[in-house]
Amino acid sequence: MQKGISTAAGLVLGFALDRVFADPRRWHPVAGFGSAAAALERKTYADDRRAGAVHEAVAVGSVVAVGALAVRGGVLATALATWAVLGGRSLARAGHAMADRLDAGDIDGARELLPSLCGRDPAVLEAGGLARAALESIAENTSDAAVAPLLWGAVAGVPGLLGYRAVNTLDAMIGYRNERYLRFGWAAARVDDAANLVPARVTGLLTAVLAPVVGGSAGAALRAWRRDAGTHPSPNAGVVEAAMAGALGVRLGGLTQYRHGVETRPTLGDGPAPGAADLRRAVVMSEAVQLGALVSAVAVAVLRR
């Protein structure tokens, strides 16, 4: 029980650090891991699933080992690891900044900001497409950048925090279904799907429960989730995006152009396409869900034996 209380205290302190300081602008540990993973890829790359699995095991295993050593640091180590892997505050700031630029009619500025939220090609998007892309990214990253790290930290402490962020970062780097990574990135994509299976559904439930915060209803969020999530190509993004669409009363999905290609995404939710005002509501929803996830993670950590 004492270990669980220590973990819970570290999660709360790290969450508070993220609220106050957001992501460090320089020397970010996640950026450092990305550079190391890219260097490793130059040694391990082959157009083969087995090579990708080795790459995943070495990169993630190394980070988990570091986390296991850092456990000795107690509350402080957990707090610093939590701060390093959370991205909730930066996500909210980027969402508000995007809404501000859209409200001001600054399409060029909004396009410039979009890469900080997602990997879509901003050059082909107008105001409506930018609002939808940003809102879908906020929904997905509420789970990936906040809920999932907190839950993994509650269950597995510092190794869980760092290991999850390594898994998620590798998926962002090599999990694309393009020619280079179709086979090499297969393991990274599948491991990320597994790591987010429970957190995405916790995010969906919290979104439904907290929908009244933004004037929505739990029933609408749950209906959109049940009806639409399974049509999405991702087993996890579909859940959180559909729940968010239902909670906000907007329609997501449609033609989606990434730098690596074009995908036609299924329709999620009912109602009009989102605008800047809906994007602001999504940020409020995201921050409420993040707080709910912290409460849930603290409960799991304290009860864990």
Summarize this, please?
Pathway: Cofactor biosynthesis; adenosylcobalamin biosynthesis. The protein is mainly alpha-helical.
Q: What general form does the structure show?
A: globular
**Helix amount:** over 70%
Number of helices, where a helix is a run of at least 4 consecutive DSSP H or I residues: 13
Q: Strand count, sense and closure of the main sheet?
A: 2 strands, antiparallel
Q: What is the H/E string?
A: HHHHHHHHHHHHEEH
Tell me the strand percentage band: under 5%
How far apart the termini lie comes to 6 Å
Structural class: mainly alpha
**How many structurally independent domains?**
1
Spatial order of the strands forming the largest sheet: 1-2
Pathway: Cofactor biosynthesis; adenosylcobalamin biosynthesis
Protein name: Cobalamin biosynthesis protein CobD
Organism: Nocardia halotolerans
InterPro entries: Cobalamin_biosynth_CobD/CbiB (IPR004485)
Can you walk me through this structure?
It contains 13 helices and 2 strands. It is mainly alpha-helical and 305 residues long. The protein has one domain. The chain has a two-stranded antiparallel ribbon with strand order 1-2. A hairpin with a 2-residue loop joins strand 1 and strand 2. Helix 2 (29-44) runs antiparallel to helix 3, helix 7 runs parallel beside helix 13 and helix 10 (197-209) packs parallel to helix 12. The radius of gyration is 19 Å and the shape is globular. It starts with a helix and ends with a helix. The mean pLDDT is 94.
